[in-house]
Write a structure and sequence with these properties.
oxidoreductase; ERG24_DHCR-like; binds NADPH dihydro-nicotinamide-adenine-dinucleotide phosphate; globular; mainly alpha; about 400 residues; binds ligand LRGFMEAS
Length: about 400
C-alpha cells in the first residue's frame, strides 16, 4: 500500500478535526488548510512515524559509514569530541535520493504537507524520549569525567547533562543538529515547493525561497566542521533546549516561510523574485565571507592579508585546565567593521527568503522575527563568554571595534 493509500485509508469522516496538541492546531490554522482532517492519534500515525524514522536512520547511517574523522575542540575537562566529516556529500546524496523517491511517488509532497502536523507530533515524542534517555545516561553512564554541580531535575532535563554524549557510536549533537534538523529543513522546503506547485501551479517566488535556503544549507554542510567550534556545541549541553530545538523547532519554524506559501501562493512578480534572489545571494556571500575571514585568519595564526592589507589583531590569553593559551582577535576586514556582521548578513538573508510571502501580513516573516531575537540574544551570550575567557583583551577589542551588528547604530 502506497503512502497516499495509507493516508486515504486512515482518514476519517470529512470535517472531523482532532488535533493532537495546541501547537499542531495553531500550525494548521496559521499556514495550512484549515479544513484539513486530522483523525488519528499521536502514536498510531504510521505515515509520520515512517518519515521521521527514515530520516533518523538515514542520518545515523551517514555517521556510521567509514569516512574522515574530525576532532572538535578539547573541553576544559580534557575531552576531545570526534565527529564524521562527510556533511557536504551527505546533503547531496540525501537530496538526490529524496528527489528520486518523489519522482516515483508523486503524491508524496502534498501528502506530507497535509500531514505535516503529525510529523511534528512524532518529532515531539522522539525529542522527549531522547532527552529522557540523555538525562538518565548523563547521570548513570556519562561519556567523560566532568563533574557537574547538582541542579533541579527539570532544569537538568532542559539544559542537558553532557556536552558531548554519544549514542550508538555517534555524537548526539551532530546527529540532532546537523544531520536530522538541517536535513529535515532542506527536504521540507523542497517538499513544500513541490506541494505548492501541485496545488497552485509553478511559482517562481516560491522557487527562489527554496533556492536561497538550499544554497544556505549547502554552505552550512560545506563548513560543518566549523560548526563544532560554536556556542551550540562547546557551551550548550545535549538537553531538551537544543535537542527539541533541532528535532522540532527547526523543522517547523525554520521552514515556516516555505510551508506558508503552499496555502498562500506568492503574490510577488517575476522581477520581484529576481530582486529577492539577488538580495539573498549577496547576503549569503557576505555572511560566508565574514565567517571565512575569521577561519582564514585563525588557520594562518594571524599571518595573512585581508582586503589587501596585513591582518591586524588584539593579542589575547586565556586559561584552561592544561595551562595558559594564546589567541588573537581580528580587528581588520569585516571583523574591524563590527563584531557580529555575520549575524547582520544572516538576518538580511532570512528576510530575503521570507519576502516571497509579501502581501500576507506578518506571518510569512515569523522566522525573520524569531531570528532577530535569537541573534541579538546570541550576541550577548557570545560576548559574555568571550569577556569571561579573554578579560582585558576582550575590552580592548571592543574599544577598537565598538559596534556589534550595525556600524554607527548597534
Ligand atoms: N540561522 C540560525 O539560527 C543561526 C545561524 N548562525 C550562523 O552561524 C554562523 C556561526 O555563528 P556563531 O557560531 O554564532 O558565531 P561566530 O562565528 O561569530 O563566532 C563567535 C566566536 O568567534 C570568536 N571570535 C569573536 N570575535 C573574534 C575576532 N574578532 N577574531 C577572532 N575570533 C573571534 C569567539 O570564539 P573563540 O572562543 O574561538 O575566540 C566567539 O565566541 C554565522 O554565519 C551565523 O550567522 C548562528 C546562530 C543562529
Ligand atoms: C527552542 C528555541 C527557542 C531555540 C532554538 C535552539 C536551536 C534549534 C537553534 C539555536 C542556534 C541555532 C543554529 C545555530 C547556528 C547554525 C549555523 C547555520 O549555518 C545553520 C543553522 C544553525 C545550525 C542553527 C540551527 C538551530 C539552532 C541550533
Amino acid at each position: 500500500m502506497g503512502v497516499s493509500e495509507v493516508l486515504r485509508y486512515k482518514v476519517g469522516p470529512p470535517g472531523m478535526v482532532v488535533t493532537t496538541t495546541a501547537g499542531v492546531q495553531l500550525l494548521a490554522r496559521l499556514g495550512g488548510d484549515t479544513n484539513n482532517t486530522i483523525p488519528w492519534s499521536l502514536l498510531g500515525d504510521t505515515f509520520s512515524w515512517t518519515v521521521v524514522t527514515v530520516i533518523l536512520f538515514w542520518a545515523l547511517l551517514s555517521l556510521w559509514v567509514p569516512g574522515k574523522e574530525f576532532m572538535g575542540p578539547q573541553t576544559t575537562f580534557g575531552y576531545t569530541p570526534v565527529y564524521k566529516a562527510n556533511g557536504f556529500q551527505f546533503l547531496w546524496v540525501s537530496l538526490a535520493a529524496f528527489l528520486t523517491f518523489v519522482y516515483f511517488n508523486q503524491n508524496f509532497p502534498l501528502d506530507l504537507y497535509n500531514n505535516f502536523h503529525n510529523i511534528l507530533s512524532s518529532c515531539n515524542v522522539l525529542a522527549f524520549v531522547l532527552c529522557i534517555y540523555l538525562l538518565v545516561k548523563g547521570k548513570m553512564w556519562p561519556e567523560s569525567s566532568e563533574i557537574l554541580p547538582s541542579k533541579p531535575l527539570m532544569y537538568e532535563f532542559y539544559r542537558g547533562m553532557e556536552l558531548h554524549p554519544r549514542i550508538l557510536g555517534v555524537d548526539v549533537k551532530q546527529l540532532t543538529n546537523c544531520r536530522f534538523g538541517l536535513l529535515a529543513w532542506e527536504l521540507l522546503v523542497v517538499t513544500f515547493f513541490l506541494a505548492g506547485w501541485q496545488r497552485n501551479g509553478f511559482s517562481l517566488a516560491h522557487l527562489v525561497c527554496v533556492i536561497l535556503q538550499t544554497i544556505y544549507l549547502a554552505k552550512f554542510y560545506w563548513w560543518e566542521t566549523g560548526y563544532f567550534n560554536t556556542l551550540d556545541i562547546i557551551l550548550d549541553r545535549a538537553g531538551y533546549y537544543i535537542c527539541w530545538g533541532c528535532l522540532v523547532f527547526v523543522p517547523s519554524l525554520y521552514t515556516f516561510s516555505s510551508y506558508y506559501l503552499v496555502a498562500n501562493p506568492p503574490l510577488v512578480s517575476a522581477n520581484g523574485s529576481a530582486l529577492i534572489l539577488l538580495l539573498g545571494v549577496v547576503a549569503i556571500t557576505l555572511n560566508y565571507r565574514v565567517d571565512w575571514e575569521k577561519e582564514h585568519f585563525r588557520a594562518h595564526d594571524g599571518k595573512c592579508t585581508l582586503w589587501g592589507r596585513p591582518a591586524t589583531y588584539v593579542e589575547a590569553k586565556y586559561t584552561t585546565n592544561t595551562g595558559v593559551r594564546r589567541s588573537k582577535l581580528l580587528t581588520s576586514g569585516f571583523w574591524g567593521v563590527a563584531r557580529h556582521l555575520n549575524y547582520t548578513f544572516e538576518l538580511t538573508l532570512a528576510l530575503a527568503w521570507c519576502l516571497p510571502g509579501l502581501g500576507y501580513g506578518i506571518l510569512p516573516f515569523i522566522y525573520f522575527i524569531f531570528l532577530v531575537i535569537l541573534l541579538v540574544h546570541r550576541v550577548f551570550r557570545d560576548e559574555e563568554k568571550c569577556s569571561a575567557k579573554y578579560g582585558d583583551a576582550w575590552d580592548k577589542y571592543c574599544k577598537e571595534v565598538p559596534y556589534r551588528m550595525i556600524p554607527g547604530i548597534f
